[in-house]
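Box S1 | Example of a co-folding query
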Amino acid sequence: MSNLVAPHILALTAYEPGKPEDELKRELGIEEIVKLASNENPYGPSPRVLEALSGAHFQLHRYPDPRGHDLREALAAHHSIPADHITLGNGSNELIDLLCRVCASRDEHAVFGHPSFPCYRIGSIAQELRYTAVSLRDNLHWNVDDLLEAVTPKTKILFVSNPNNPTGSYIPAAELKRLLTSVPEHVLVAIDEAYLEYADASDFRPATQLRDTRERLAILRTFSKAYGLAALRVGYVIGTPELVLALNRLRAPFNVGTIGQHAARLALSDQEHLAATVEACVRDRAKLGGALKERGFEVAPSQANFLLLKMPKAGRAVYEALLHEGVIVRPMSPPLESWIRVTVGRPEENTRFLESLERVLRESRV
Ligand SMILES: Cc1ncc(COP(=O)(O)O)c(C=O)c1O
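Box S1 (continued) | Returned holo structure for pyridoxal-5'-phosphate
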């Protein structure tokens, strides 16, 4: 019999999600768990969302709006662009995969950073693309020339996570503009701005302000992070109507559910809640980073809602030891195997993380 699973799928390293709290409860019987593993907003979504959902009567027997009209109109108004420049995804993750499928054919080429979000690689492999994973400088910092050098006549898509997961680093405005104007015309540049709301560097610039620099540009956004709606799976892409129409050809017709569309619209309408929770995170990012540095850890400068910090021992061993403390962080794979990534949580969660980290390292449990 021939293979059930295609060889390129068998060969790929699957995405390793953050460990769910309930899984750790089942495994170790720990009740009080702090999850700082998936860069979620620890304050949750706008109270408007929670109020509306608790009293809502959705027509659950009806399919969702396949075109997401109301949410797309709200996003169009928010960004001051026409609604036909936007399409919705089941999280931005789905859109990463969709961009690979729509814009590149087998044996064409993709470029992305390394270390960066693993789904650019997974999306490329699924589509049987060749790819170049461009090493970040010191494994932490973007270098635009390195990205440009990796582009070939066969390159169809170039992904940049800005700010980058898992390093928290970013491409400053002038360099981003240079990238967008220097990448050859035939390449679609996809700027993934999942963590944009947390970037406060004076020279950070959203790609939405640079749309006039090139035609082949896709900007990915999500409601999973700062908007606090990770459970509902809503992301979107901003691009030309030509790109949006092409994505819609392949996008599953009902890829974003009714509740997700409704909740995202309400979350978008409450910019005050967004600003307040982002402000708390940015403040606590500095506090936690400072406290870690005081304790002698190397911490990568972060423009996102997480910190990457170097361990004196294997990061995975520290991760495992922290699980026994009821604290879930994220171990990293090579070349960051001695680092862990921790989401900035509420102040009390950050304190618990710090205390647990000190304890497991002091007691040499790793
Ligand atoms: C850089 C980046 N892009 C995209 C995503 C996917 O987010 P979602 O599918 O929840 O929108 C993540 C999630 O961790 C991410 O870190």
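The domain at 7-44+272-362 is CATH 3.90.1150.10 (Aspartate Aminotransferase, domain 1). The mean pLDDT is 96.
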